[in-house]
Every structure is written in C-alpha cells, then in structure tokens.
Amino acid sequence: MSLSYRLLLLVLIPFNFFILSQVKIEDFKNSLRNKTFDQQVSLIEKELNGVRYQDQSSFESLLRILEELPSAKLAKEIQRNKTCSLIEGYLVLGQSNKALTLISKEIVDRKEELNEREEALFLWYITREGLNQKRTLSFAMERLNKAKKTKNINSIYEAYRSVSLIYLMKANADSAVYFSGLATLEAKRLTDKTKLMESMRYQANVYHYFENYQEAINKELQMIQLAIENNNDYFRAYGYLDIYRISIELQNFDQATQYIERAKNYFRNINDQRGELIASIFEIHNDYLRGKEVNLPGLIELRLKVEQFDDQLSTALIKMVFSFHYTHQKNFIQSNKELEEALSILKGREEEKLNYFINKRIAINCIELRKIDKAISHLNYTLPPFQTKNLLIAESYLIRADLERKRNNIEGVSFFQNKYIEVARVNEKEQFSRAVEQLTEGNLREEREKLIEQQQEKLLEEQKEKERIAFQKDRQVIVGITIGILLIMIVFIVAIRLRAQRSKQKQREAEMSQSLLRSQMNPHFVFNAMSVIQSYIYANDPEKSSRFLVNFSRLMRLILENSPKEMIPLELEFEILDKYLNTQKMRFEDRFKYELNFDEELLFSKALIPPMIAQPFVENAIEHGQLHTIEGGVIIVSVHKFDDLLEIIVQDNGVGRKKAAITKKIKDHKSMAIDITRERIAILNRKYKVNGLIEITDAMPNEQGTKVRILLPLNFDVS
User: Fold this and answer.
1) C-alpha closest to that of 619 among 650, 643, 641
2) CA-to-CA distance for 607 and 715, rounded, in angstroms?
C-alpha cells in the first residue's frame, strides 16, 4: 500500500466519526447553557470519564470546553477539580508539556494540603523530573500506607503503581515488577475493568523496559483478551501498538507489520486520530527499517498532519522518520538536526528506549561526519542503567569498538568487543540451550532403552539358573523355593489389594468430581439464567443481555474446565466466584451485595485451592438464605492463611439456618452440599496429612445469618 493511499485513508475514514462526534458535542454544549459554572465542571468531568476509552475526538473536544470555563468564577474546590481534570486529560492526549506546566503552576507551590488526585499528579511530576529520588520514594510509601488505612482499593492500586514507577526510574527491576504485580492484584478487585486493563498494560511496559520480552508479550495478550471480553477497542489498539514496538526491537518485522495494521483499525473504531497518526508513523518507520522506498511528498503531508496535534510523541517520531530519509540521502547534518530536536522533545522516562535508539543514530551520523568525540558522547547515552540483553541496543558496543580502533586505542577495542560478545552469548545461549535440551532428551531415551534391554537379558539368565538349581537341589531347597513362592504370592495379593483400593479411591474421586460438576451446574440456576436473558431480550435491552450472556458463558466455561481438577490457582477461584456472584446479582436485579476478600500475599504467591469448594455455600446463602428478598442482603467470602492452613469463610446476613431449613428440599440440597464438601476435605486430609474441617454456625446471636468455615491444606504452585 503506497504512503499516499495510507494518508488518504487517514484523512477520510475518521471523517464520518468526526461529524457524529461534533453533533453530540454541540448537543452537550447546548445542555450546559442553563447551568452554573460549578455545575458545568461536574457535568464535563462525568462526560470525560464516559468517553475516555470510547471516543478520543469527543474527549479532546470536552477538554477544550473545560479549558474555556473561567476559573475565577468557580468555587475553590471546583477550581482544584478542574485543574486535575485538565492535567489528567493532557496526559491522555500525550501533551506532557502542558501537564507539567499546569502542575508546576497550580500544585507544586500550593500551601494547602493536597487532596488525593493532586498528590498523585504531584508524585508523577517529581518522578518524571527525577527530583530527589529518596524523597520521592518516601512520599510514595506514605501515600501507600495512607491508602491501606482507608482500605480504598482504587487508592491502593494507584499507590502501588506509583511506587513501581519510582523503582523503574531507579532501574530496580525486581521492585518495579513486584509492585506492578501488586497493583494488578488490586485492580482485579475493582469492578471497573478498565483499571485492570490499564494496570496490565503498565505491567507489560515494565517487563518490556527491563527486556523480559516473553512476560511483556504475555501480559499484553492477556490485556487484549480482557479488552475483547469487555468490548474495549481502546486497550486493544494500544495493546497491538505495544506488541509492534516489542517486535521491532526483536527485529520481527513481518510480525510487526501485522500488529501495526491491527492497531490502526482499532484506533479508527474509537476515533483516536492521534493514535492512528502514531501508528501510521511507526508503519513508515517499519518500511524504512526493511529497506522500502518512501516518497518525500507523502512524508511532508504526514508532518503537516502531525503539526495539528500538540503531542510530543508523534512530533518526535516524525522527526525520527525524516532523519532516516536524510540519512539515505547522505545528508547527515540535517539527519542529526532532526534527531536532536526529537531528543529535546522526548524528555522524561516514558520514552527512554526511543532515546537509546535516537542517540545511537546520532552517533552513527557523527562517525560519517568524522566527529568522533561527539559520537562517543552520544554512545554513552545508548545503554540502559541495567545489564542489557537487547542486541539492537548492544550494537552500540560494536560501534564504540570501531571508534576506539580509529583512535588506535587497542585496549578500548578489546573492552567493547567483549561487552558485545557477552550480550551476543546471552542471546545465543538461549537458542543453544533449547537445542542441547532436545539432544539430551534423545540421548537419555536411548540410554533408558538399552538399560531396559540389559535388565531383561539379565532376568532371563537368572531365571534359567534358578530352574537348573531347582532340579539339582534336595527337598530343603524345594521347600525354600516353595516358601519363597508363598511370600511372593502374599506380596502379590497385598499389591493387588492396594491397587484395588487405589482404583476405588480414584473412582470415588471421579464420582466426587461428577457430583461437584452436577452441583455447580444446577439446572434451576441454568434455567433461571436463560429466563433472565430472555427477559432482557423482551425488554429490548441488548446491552444488558449481552453483558449477562458474556458473564454467564465465561462462568460455564470455567466450571466445565476446572471441575475435574484437584487444585486450581486461588486467582482462578476468585474469578469463578466473582463471575457466579455477579451473574446472580444481575439475575436478582442488584438486590444484594457481595465482597470477595482474598489475601493479597496468597494471590501473589500462587496459592492453590480445590475448585469451587465454597460455591455450594454461596448458592445456599443466596437461594436459601433468601438474600434476594431481604433488605440490605450481603454475602462475604474471605480467604486467608490460618496456622499453615487455608481458611475460607462464607458469611451472610440472610434468614438463618432455622428458617432456611423449613422445607425438605432445602434440607436435602444443603445435606448434599455438606456431604460432598466433607468427602472432598476427607480425601485432602488423607493425602496431605492435615486436619481440614468444615463448620456451620449462626452468624449472629439472634439466629440470623449463616457462617461457614472451611479449613484446607495450604499448597502453592511452584511451576
């Protein structure tokens, strides 16, 4: 596809979206006319949150309306809200310089105590500017402790992310990864799934920064899958863009081409002209790297398009692409001018990897211009503050070795060549280790087969010798052989009995698994779920029916996939209970609330749990505890560590055991659930040599509510 055709698409395809967005924005502006300025700010903030991940053009238009409101006529607290919304909006649009200016003017020197939003923006500011790292970390930890005291999950999530970013800036890979993981665990507890996608993308970026490419790709793909489930094209687009950038670093140009094309398509879906523009620039960048021709008039037209956006990243990227053009034209001076301007724009840690590559390109141009000292100066900025294993970055060692050769510095040549060889060996070793593993597996297989053959031959020879001796020896030997045969028979019989017991045990476990599956797939629950979907359809509410169906189908899939397993990760059990409770909550039209309190350390340590061990009691709480009929119904599921055991508590404030046990049907259902659970616990107790148990008591002195306590063996996934 030619560049001119790409640019035509870039201009024409968003045009219809732009018209629709403008119509909506005009209607919204008209609705503000009879409102006070304070009311207008609140309405605009609400609308900004609604379109942030849906329509970037509308988001930008709303931000402009907010800018125009006179701050002097706003109440003091509303003024602060307006400032925070503007800064957050600038960061979404990539306008970092505007955000920095406003923070410096309105927040940094403020004498009053900062609120939570202002603290977060101030922390981002001092982190990005690299001001007093020790003080920055101390401030971030104070915010984290304050958030934990308030038990506000969103605040804890934001605090963990801030701490991780500071450690990223300090090039402390372990701590940056650890706190990004804790942030994701907190985000999973939030009902707003955009926070989880946001956290997973940040976690992928941390892995990418420290060159753990496999984990980075895994996190990006998980985030994209979550975006698909939640019909969120924003995170799909940026996920594909991130994978493109990783693919370019790994020189997988064909794969990069596919992902950048996908990114552009989804940017169009959300009317994100800035994102589509960045993707188009990266696409041309990819063409240059693959040696393809790019026409200059088309490139100039793209630059004019970039100038319409006050965006640092796209401006720097177009300058990078122009530098490639000038390098191909042997105009190294103009190429360096473009690159140096790009460097001045990309200030801060967000795009530091681009800085490495830009400095390397400047150094290469300086070599062509015979400016050796300047080349060395820029090469010093091409390596990250940790041991790199990226061959693209490590090529700087080869360039530096060549420069030292031109300076007749033999010691320097040897040093930088060895540094490059170290990185090359890391990459070669990974490929070599896989080949060695395959060879050794084949070799071990051959040795095992030879050993078995030798043992079989030896056994045959021994058997023949025994037969010969049997004919030569007297009755005493025959008696001894007879006794030996009897002993063998006894051992054989015992072995058969043990085998039968194990077979019976496995059969019992299989029956338990089937009983568990039947108990989870309650036909009444499935029928009621279908009825809910039908009611949504009759009510002409496709959004609710679609959301219910996606949630319900995911729950059924999780049940079918995990019922046969003995143990599953605690994180997966969290998702199953969350999906089940959310389905029931939608079914009963939000007539009860629920909380899932899973210990963070257990989640992070990959603790294991028998699948759906608590689900029957959750179902009893809803159906027989009549949570959907009482006012203020609540069910709480807690999972914690207790004396080296896993403690599960299911508690509700329903009608209580006495009232719930009135009907025989309820008694039978509860009895089956308790019997199945007790049998499962007994099997686990025998296997892991622990004292697991199940206790059912009244939750309150007035016999209202029910509390179920389960103790299980505590195991972890060590794979």
Assistant:
1) 650
2) 6
The strands making up 568-569's β-sheet, listed across from edge to edge, are 568-569, 607-609, 715-716
CATH of 567-716, one of 2.130.10.10, 3.20.20.120, 3.20.20.70, 3.30.565.10: 3.30.565.10
679 close to 659: Cβ distance less than 8 angstroms:
no
Strand pairing class (607-609; 645-652): unpaired
Q: What is the pLDDT of residue 637?
A: 95
Q: Tokens for 345, please give them.
A: 């724009």
Hunting for tokens 């990250």 — which residue is that?
384
For 415, the 3-state DSSP assignment is: helix
Q: How confident is the model at residue 12 (pLDDT cuts 50, 70, 90)?
A: very low
Cα(618)–Cα(616) distance, integer angstroms: 5
User: Buried b vs exposed e over 300-325: b needs ≥16 C-beta within 10 Å?
Assistant: ebbbebbeebebbbbbbbbbbbbbbb
Side chain identity, residue 90: Y
Predicted confidence (pLDDT) per residue in 445-501, tens digit: 444 455 566 666 777 787 777 777 766 766 677 777 878 788 888 877 777 777 767
Q: What tokens appear for 335 in the block? A: 């190429």
CA nearest neighbour of 261 among 243, 288, 235, 234: 243
Q: How does strand 693-698 pair with strand 633-642?
A: unpaired
Cβ neighbours around 561 below 10 Å, total = 13
Give the separation between CA 359 and CA 396, rounded to whole angstroms: 10
pLDDT of residue 429: 42
φ/ψ (deg, to 5) at 385: -80, 30
Is pLDDT at 92 greater than 70 in this prediction?
A: yes
3-state secondary structure labels for all residues of 87-144: HHHHHHCCCHHHHHHHHHHHHHCCCCCCCHHHHHHHHHHHHHCCCCHHHHHHHHHHHH
SS3 string, 601-658, reads: HHHHCCEEECCCCCHHHHHHHHHCCCCCCCCCEEEEEEEEEECCEEEEEEEECCCCHH
Q: How far apart are alpha carbons 708 and 706 in whole angstroms?
A: 7
Q: What is the dihedral of CA 456, 462, 466, 472, to 10 degrees?
A: 140
Q: Closest Cα to residue 148, out of 653, 645, 600? A: 600
Q: How far apart are CA 499 and CA 637, in angstroms?
A: 39
Q: For residues 575 and 188, what is the distance between their CA atoms, to the nearest angstrom?
A: 9
Lowest mean pLDDT among 188-192, 212-216, 266-270, 483-487: 483-487
AA identity, residue 395: E
Q: How much is the pTM? A: 0.55
pLDDT in tens, 126-183: 877 776 777 888 888 988 999 999 999 999 999 999 899 888 888 788 999 999 999 9
* Nearest alpha carbon to residue 121 among 74, 85, 152: 85
133 Cβ contact list (under 8 Å, min separation 6): 166, 169, 170
How many angstroms separate the CA atoms of 702 and 656, rounded? 9
